[in-house]
Structure formats: structure tokens, C-alpha cells
Amino acid sequence: MQVLDKAPQGWPCLVLNADYQPLSYWPLSTWPWQEAIKNVFLDRVDIVSNYAETVHSPSIEMQLPSVVALREYVAQNRAPAFTRYNVWLRDGFRCVYCGADRVDNLTFDHVIPRSRGGGTSWENIVAACSPCNLKKGGRTPREAGMTAVRPPARPTMHQLQAQGRRFPPKYLHQSWMDYLYWDVELDA
């Protein structure tokens, strides 16, 4: 993880809610610079910080926004979408059976197999590495002699965001640092 003084290619813009908190930490809420400028002109956001880089049209010159804040608050108490990615995030990108950190080898496992009536829901799906998923097969964890680190459960949006703070992106621009909080040490 590196904090950069110079913006990375593409000039991403950090998007904050009206309370100046990021809309999400994982993935980090950013827009391409074009989307940020469009929303500035539509009066949907306030510019909080700019890059030194400018863009030009025939009639206007404008610095690229590096941080914007929405003018209207977006409630964060909605239920998170059930997606493979959010299951992996809930489980910390680790296998719940062996604890291996195998991001490139994670799968979606039905605790109670579908062949036995197990559904595809927050309460029955966990992140598992391929070897553990194959070992478990069409059995329950108990039948396979395996134990999950924690039982699957529906997370709240706040729990997913807290979990996301454990996984900072590969880069952060210096102008974003006053608005972000990470649960890990960052290299300056």
C-alpha cells in the first residue's frame, strides 16, 4: 500500500457522502474524472479537493477534482447485495475451513449442499479454497470432519464496510487521506 503525491493514471476522484465519509471502502468509492466533472456541472456534488491537472473545453478550463462530496446524503443502512464478492469480503478473503489466504483460489461453498435442500443465501454460503471445497464435496462440514471458523450470517452494510477497511487499495492519493480510515499501517 502506497500513498502517492502524484495521481495515478486516469485521475480517479474519491466520492464522499454528504457527511464527508466514503460511500464505500471496498471497493473504494471513486469515479473516473469524467464522471466527477459531469456531476459537478449537474450540481450533484461539491468539489472538496483538486488535482493540479486541468482539462479544457472551447469555453472553460477546469482543474480535475480529486475529492468530491455528494450534496444529498445516501443512506448506508440498506442491506448489502448478496454477491460472491461480498461473501468473500464478509469472510475476509480467507477460507472459513482452513483459514488459508487464497484470494486467487476462493470459491463459493454451500454449507448445507444444494442436493440436500441448502439454499444460496447469506446464511448458507461461505468462502472456501478449492481444496477444502473439494474435500467437503456434497457433505455437510460435520460429515466431512471440517469446522468453519464462524457460521455464515447476513452482514450489515456497516460490517462489510468495516471489513473493507482491512483491505486498502494499492494506491491512495495524498488529497484523499483526510477522508479515509484504514485498519492497517500505510507506507508513506
TrEMBL record:
Keyword hit for Nuclease: yes
GO molecular function terms attached to this record: endonuclease activity
Database matches in Gene3D superfamilies: 1.10.30.50
Keywords, ordered alphabetically: Endonuclease, Hydrolase, Nuclease
Pfam families, sorted: HNH_5 (PF14279)
Family matches, as InterPro entries: HNH_5, HNH_nuc, NA-targeting_endonuclease
Residue span(s) of domain HNH nuclease: 82-134
CDD domains in UniProt: HNHc
Protein name as it appears in the record: HNH endonuclease
Species per Swiss-Prot/TrEMBL record: Hyphobacterium marinum
